[in-house]
Input
Amino acid sequence: MDAERRDTSTSAATAPDRRVLLLFVLVALVPVVGAAVRLHHAGWIPEGDDAMIARRTMAVFSHHPPVSGQPSTSGNLFTHDGGGGHAASIEASHPGPLEYYLLAIPYRLSGWSPGGLLAAVALVNGAAAATAVWLSWRRLGTIGAATAALGVLLVAAHLGTWNLARPLNANIAVLALLAGLVATWGVLDRDRAALVPAVVALSFVIQAHLGAAPVAATALLVAVGTAAWKGRRDQRAHLVAAAGALVAVWALVVVQQFTGHPGNLAALVDVTRLPIDRAGPAFGLSAVFDHVTQPAWPGVPALPRISILGPIPVGLALAKGAVVFALLAVAAWWARRARQPTLVRLVAVAAGAVLVPALVLSRGPDEVRLGPSYQLTSLLAVSALLTMALLAVLAEALGPLRIPRAAAIVGAAGLGLGAIAVAAWGGPTYPADAARTRAIADAIRAQVPKGTYKLSAEGTWAYLSTLDAVSVELLRHGYDIRVVRLGTTPDEGIRRDTKIAAPTIVVDSTDVARTDGRLLVRRGPLPSDPTWAGPLLAAVSRPEVHLEVVAAGDRTPSRCVDDVMRLARGPDTAARRRHVVRAVLRCPQGDRRTIGRSLRWNGLGAFWVDLLGSNMPGPFPHTGLAAYLVAAPTRDQPGQ
Output
């Protein structure tokens, strides 16, 4: 092995080698930056879970900073006890809030703009990609940098623009996990510079998402244990720095555990003790092997926005797994025979990264068979590491040990073309969804003065996605929003102030023809056939969302309101509809708001859509009376 690979503390590479490293780092950054640019060009704004992350990132600089991670569904499982069963409900979150703090500064500097959040995510993913390439280069020189850059491109192609650029915690943990696994390999190979990156990257992954936590936690224990066991006197500074990093990134998690009611870590331990049906080794092994061997091409990312796992062909998946481990065994045998301990350690880390999630999924809940694929997103990093290990061994076996600079530049150029393809054809960006949600938020801002409001949702899509997006848009423009969809986030107390007397903005998607919306958020025994998700997602993906503002407190009914309500209680005929519409138009604005609320509560609001849609002003006239009553009435409320 040449000089640049033998040195375990600093690279002995020459200046041209460093320039080659820079080329491969730039190649790895292309899809990360390209994804952010594409999504920003599509007008993206954070919705659903992304909006929850954005809102909690905003809270970093507040008097109520986040101390736990995203809400988790891990405690909502179907348990069994002596032949009976019931649905458990343990409020638990993902382990920690580190993601919010890493995103906060660039997001704040942008004025909390959606583009600023995309840039913050790109910085985190870019740092992870660059770290993976740099640490791999320190171990294997040009071959290491090239294989790591290829691993980053594979992850980017799998995720696609939509999943790579957004802050969703399951997605932002993937490249960080790849960097952490490469750093663990570096620590095992006695690279002093790899210890702190391993601690930070793997801690970030553990705190961000429970699906990736088992692999990351195992790697972190291996890295820290190896450094502490085999650390030499000249490594003391790195050990002290790593210890300081551990304290810094885990301090808030420890504080929450001892001050929270309950502590989140204790709640997660309780989740592991639930009596549940286990998925079994056949599923665990087949799920892992199926995903780590899944190809991806630019424009057809393997992960859609929300993907429900279909039946996994167990036999085929196990056959692919057998091939993978046969290749790993041959690679380890050759590397050991050729006296290449660096490669032996790389193969060992890759094999361990496959076996750990297989064991965890085997012992995990049976419900994961039909759960969201976010449980398996982290396997993309494992797949990239496998590819790196096998290609590095193959390259060394074919030789020569040193790659000429010209050949390295040509290789970087080829990978660069692949990176551009991944960035340019990274799948859909859903601009129509963003435009619709932005229009709703803009309509509220145009008609509702700044002040303190509650937010409420009616309808599946409004509850799952639009409401959180509206909350973020209003918060960043100076509104004080107190009640939004918070899930089980215990540290957003100021946003949970349900007793405050304030108008309520209602975002509604109940006019969508839909199946049982509860299925999407249901926990417990699920249908054996996953096709139920198709009609549901189609039903809630194109809603005609309308909204209204409800006054704080009830208004004393007037004669006009009484007349309209009396007319509305009769049989549904065309003549009666005309009478009701005329009666509504004779009422003052404040009474129209009251009428709109009452009609909607009685389930009658949809009767007037056709009659009112063509001649009523407002941002969404096609949604009828409810849209007409959006916000203008709030201007005459006391204190507004």
About this structure: The CA atoms of residues 51 and 468 lie 5 Å apart. The radius of gyration is 28 Å. DSSP finds 24 helices and eight strands in the chain. Confidence is low (pLDDT under 50) at residues 1-15, 304-309, 511-545, 600-640.
